[in-house]
Amino acid sequence: MLAADVEAVLEANQAFYDAFEARDIDAMSELWEHSDRVICTHPGWSPLRGWGAIAGSWFGLFGNTEHLQFIVTNARAEIDRDIAWVVCDENILGGASSGTVAALNLFSRRPGGRWFMIGHHGSPIVG
Amino acid sequence: MLAADVEAVLEANQAFYDAFEARDIDAMSELWEHSDRVICTHPGWSPLRGWGAIAGSWFGLFGNTEHLQFIVTNARAEIDRDIAWVVCDENILGGASSGTVAALNLFSRRPGGRWFMIGHHGSPIVG
User: Fold this and answer.
1) Which domains, from first to last, does chain B contain?
2) Contacts of A49 in chain B (CB under 8 A)
């Protein structure tokens, strides 16, 4: 793996948390692939499949949750051709939602070189 | 995606649950890629990275947990060249562990055509 590729994937991963923290639906929409193959499992949720369902979940979350701050630690990217996966810890500060969530994020690289999110799975770390 | 490829990925996914249900450490070892890039997040756990840590977790789980039965539903596979991801529901029957877990499983295809597991992330579905 080229260091520059790893850096680009980790930047795409951070952009996801920046959009989440800013509750910026446009930025969130811009960084996801808009397709039927994308998947998203929020902590405690059933899996969502396809951009329509996932977009709806962000609208709901951004409208209903308190302000959350994300401090991402232990992020590590792996790349296999044009698919990448990142495992990281989301250290969340924000009232009742405070805690640490383990995340697995998937990305796909388009011909132009930009990485788009195609999967997110988060689960609270207990204890 | 070729239907035969999707079928092969779903078979690899089912083999994982068969090994889990049988608490068969040899079968589990045989279906995972033995590398540093593999990742595994059991429900409520911090992410494990690399085959050594993941193998250790299976030894522990198979030795310490009650017998679990897995009924896998809603499994859907997506393939991008030689990487595949499956989202499914694990309907678990087994005393205190009974419940439904959302899973995201990753697979890598070797030149010979066989799919090896490179990632697993499970989280309980609440409510």
Assistant:
1) 3-124 (3.10.450.50)
2) 76, 87
